[in-house]
Amino acid sequence: MPRNKRPQPPQEKRAEIVTAARELFVDAGYDATPMGRLAAAAGVAANTIYWYFEDKDAVLIAVLDEVMTDAWAQYQSVAAEPTRHAQIS
C-alpha cells in the first residue's frame, strides 16, 4: 500500500508549483510546457495544479510575480549604494 504524503500547507505546495513552472518556462518556454509536464516536475497530479491556479496563464502570472519580487529585492539591495561618476576629460 502506498504511503500518504505528509500534509502540506497550500502556500507551500503553490510555491513548489511556481518554482517548477519557472524552471520549465525558462528551459523549454511557456508554449512548450504542457500542464502535465509541469505537474510531473512539481510532483503532483495534473489536476492538482487547478486547485491552486485557474489555468496556465495564472501560473505564468505567478511566475512573473516571483521574478519581479526577486528583481525588486536585488534593486533594493543596491539602490542605496552611492554611485560612482566617471570623470570626463
Account of the 3D structure:
- By secondary structure, this protein is mainly α.
- The chain has a single domain (10-79), classed as Tetracycline Repressor, domain 2 (Orthogonal Bundle).
- It is 62% helix and 0% strand.
- It has 4 helices and no strands.
- Helix 1 (10-28) packs across helix 2 and helix 1 crosses helix 4 (56-79).
- The model has no long low-confidence stretch (mean pLDDT 88).
Helix-strand sequence: HHHH
How many beta-strand elements?
Answer: 0
SS-based structural class?
A: mainly alpha
Largest sheet: none
Mean pLDDT across all amino acids? 88
Model regions low in confidence, pLDDT < 50 over at least 5 residues:
none
Helix segment tally: 4
CATH architecture: Orthogonal Bundle
Gross geometry: elongated
> Any idea what the radius of gyration is?
19 Å
Text of the CATH class: Mainly Alpha
Helix content: 55-70%
The CATH H-level superfamily is: Tetracycline Repressor, domain 2
The number of domains is 1
